[in-house]
C-alpha cells in the first residue's frame, strides 16, 4: 500500500501538475490526441518498455497514465485503470473470474450491477449469492474456501445502509485470504472512504458521478491494492480495450482537482436539505447517511410523486448523480427497474421512494423548489 504523503486536498489540487513530463513544464497536463507513437529505430522497438514509453494508445497514453497514477494515489492502490464507464470498470474486475466461481454480493446495489450479474450467471455460470449487508454472522456462513469475491456498495443504493468494510474484509480473508473484497466507492469517493485502507482488495468507481462531477461525461476506474492483481487487470484491460480516451482522461483529471471542495459542499447541502425534507408533511421518511450528497426519501402518497416531478423548477427529473446540478430519480422506474417487483419491495424500493442527488446550488433554493413542487 502506498503511504499517504500529502493530504488528499493537496493530492487533488496538484493532480498531474509536476509529473506530466511535458517538455515545456506545463502546469496542466497536456492532452496527446494521437493513437500511436513513433519508434526511433529497431533497437528502440526491441527494448521498448510499456511502463516507461508509449507505442499505441490502447496500451497506454500519457494523459491517461497521469490520471491513473493520481487515482491509485487517492485510493492507496498499487495501480489504477481508467475505463470508458462505471460498467466497464465492473466488467474489468469480473474478467478476473471464471465459470463456476462463487461470488457474494450485498443485496442493495446499483441496478446495472445486478443486470450484469444476472447476465454472468446465465451465460457464464458464475454463482452469485446475496447478503443483506447487515448481519455479519450470515456473511460468515456465506463465504467459504470456494468464494472468489465479496462485492459491495456502501452506503447502499438507494436505501443508504452502511456496511463495515473492515469487518467484511476480516471475515472474507479469514475464510480464504485469496477472496477479493471489491467495493464500489462511487457514492462517497476517496474523500470520505478509502476501502483499500480498510482491508478491501479492489475499488471501482463510476467516475461519471462524483469523480468527474459535472454531469458531462462517462468514465469509470478500477484501483487494485496489490501489484499482482493489478498486473492481471492490466493484461485484460489492454486486451479487451475498455480504455478511456485521452480527452476524457484529461477532463476527469481536471475535474478531480475540485473533488474535495465539491464533496464538502455536497455534504453540507445534503445535510440541510435532508433536515428540511424530514419536516415536510408530505414526506414519510428520509434516509441520509450523514455524509455525501445522496438522500433517499419516501413520500406518503404516490400521487405526490407525479406532482413533484411536474412542478420542479431547479432540480431535474433525471437519472444519474454526483454532479453540480441537483437530480431527482425514482429508482423503481429508473435505476432499479430491471429488478423484479418482489425483490424491489423486499429492499424497500417502493414507488414512493425517491433519490435526490444534492447538487451545488444554494441549499435554500433546493428546499424551496421541493416545497413549492410538493404543493399544499
Ligand atoms: C452509475 C453507477 C454505476 C455505473 O456507472 P456508469 O458510468 O453509468 O457505467 C455503477 N455503480 C454505481 C454505484 C453507480 O451509481
TrEMBL record:
Keywords: Aminotransferase, Lyase, Pyridoxal phosphate, Transferase. It is an enzyme of class 2 (transferase). Its EC number is 2.5.1.-. Pfam families: Cys_Met_Meta_PP. GO terms for molecular function: carbon-sulfur lyase activity; pyridoxal phosphate binding; transaminase activity. GO terms for cellular component: cytoplasm. Its cofactor is pyridoxal 5'-phosphate. The modification N6-(pyridoxal phosphate)lysine is found at residue 209. One of its GO terms (biological process) is transsulfuration. Belongs to the trans-sulfuration enzymes family. This is Aminotransferase class I/II-fold pyridoxal phosphate-dependent enzyme. It comes from Lentilactobacillus parabuchneri.
